[in-house]
Amino acid sequence: MQNCYILGIESSCDDTAAAVINNGQILSNVVATQKIHEEYGGVVPELASRAHQQNIVPVVSQALRKANIDKKDLKAIAFTRGPGLMGSLLVGTSFSKSLAMALDIPLIDVNHMQAHILAHFIKDEDKSSPEFPFLALTISGGHTQIVKVNHYFEMEIIGETIDDAVGEAFDKSAKILGLPYPGGPLIDKYAKEGNPKAFKFTKPKVGPLDFSFSGLKTAVLYFIERETAKNPNFVTENMADICASLQFTIVDYLMDKLKNASKQTGITRIAIGGGVSANSGIREALQKAEKELNWETYIPKFEYCTDNAAMIAMVGELKYKTNYTADKDISAVARLKF
Ligand code: KG4
Ligand code: ZN
Question: Which atom of ligand 1 is least distant from the CA of 116?
Fold first, then answer.
């Protein structure tokens, strides 16, 4: 097969990333995570765009070097158009446009949420790709959706959060517990040593395929306030049990919705994507469902769960092979829909 090197660029939030793909195979996948936000307890948009400006050239150079190619070997450049933070998206968009123009090669815009789903089509010796149609649960810091994927670019959102995203529920609860940002991975870490039945949190009630997480965050806040009034060391003494119980509730809630979606559509091929799919609880629950419910489940490799450019390059390749090219005057869209 002829070489077809495509560069992917991702800058929608607080990770500056670049990757090179060649016929479905990832040759390099470089991510510069911005540490600056930790001290603020969340992403500061102004600081994020400034850090993208600093990181983008070295990150792209490193991706080309690791892939062992020259920029002149590239066939196209794919970039995240949205959804995301406008200031962050603009850095990747302008950089990609300029490079595509300088090299006189096609520019391809990519929807970040579609990319989290289509990351499952990256060729990997250990993993197979789902056949169509399949259901995708996209769980990240900005989104929580159940998507019916009929074909690469034929996707239908059949359920979503009515308020916060599940990643926010993890991060905001972690903040209440005094943990640094992003708290999701830390809750996961502490949960491994705790008892998931130690404390009970109520699962919010909304439509069968929809989600709500703002109530859960408030419930955690009141619970912690109540308990620390009785025992000031409550959080430190019970960290593992609190995290395990919280994670158990969230995972159980996500699984309830997936089961409803599977029942409603008759589809048993289930994929997950987005940063929260790195969570060990949801991974275990899906593996259990594979045996108990006869589901075929698709769980991405860790490096393709959180924000990365390999998934952007993958979508770029799929679009490139249909001869798609974006207009050179295309711009970033913060609230980009499917
Ligand atoms: O997809 P992503 O990297 O960025 C967005 O597009 O939002 O997702 C980031 C989110 C954060 O909320 C982070 O806390 C969460 O994914 N996350 C986790 C885990 N790893 C990342 N949440 C729970 N458990 C994890 N292991
Ligand atoms: Zn993401």
Answer: 1
Kindly list the structural domains of the chain, giving each domain's residue range(s) and its CATH number in brackets, ordered by start: 5-119+307-320 (3.30.420.40), 130-300 (3.30.420.40)
* Side-by-side strand order, sheet with 296-298: 154-160, 144-151, 134-139, 269-273, 296-298
Burial 89-123 (b: 16+ CB within 10 A, else e): bbbbbbbbbebbeebebbbbbbbbbbbbbbbbbbe
pTM of the model: 0.95
Distance, in Å, from the CA atom of 89 to the CA atom of 99, rounded to the nearest integer, reads 16
Ligand 1 pocket, mutate which of 161, 170, 189, 248 (most atoms under 8 A from CB): 170
What are the C-alpha distances in Å from 83 to residues 89, 138, 150, 271, 298? Answer: 8, 13, 21, 21, 24
Q: Alpha carbon of 89 to those of 105, 181, 312, 335: distances in Å?
A: 21, 21, 13, 11
What tens digit of pLDDT does each residue of 4-37 get? 999 999 999 989 999 999 999 999 999 998 888 8
Q: Whose CA is nearest to atom 23 of ligand 1?
A: 184
b/e 202-239 (16+ beta carbons within 10 angstroms → b) = eebeeeebbbbbebbbebbeebbeebeeeeeebbeebb
Q: Which two tokens stand for residue 52?
A: 């993208």
- Closest by alpha carbon to 77, among 307, 324, 305? 324
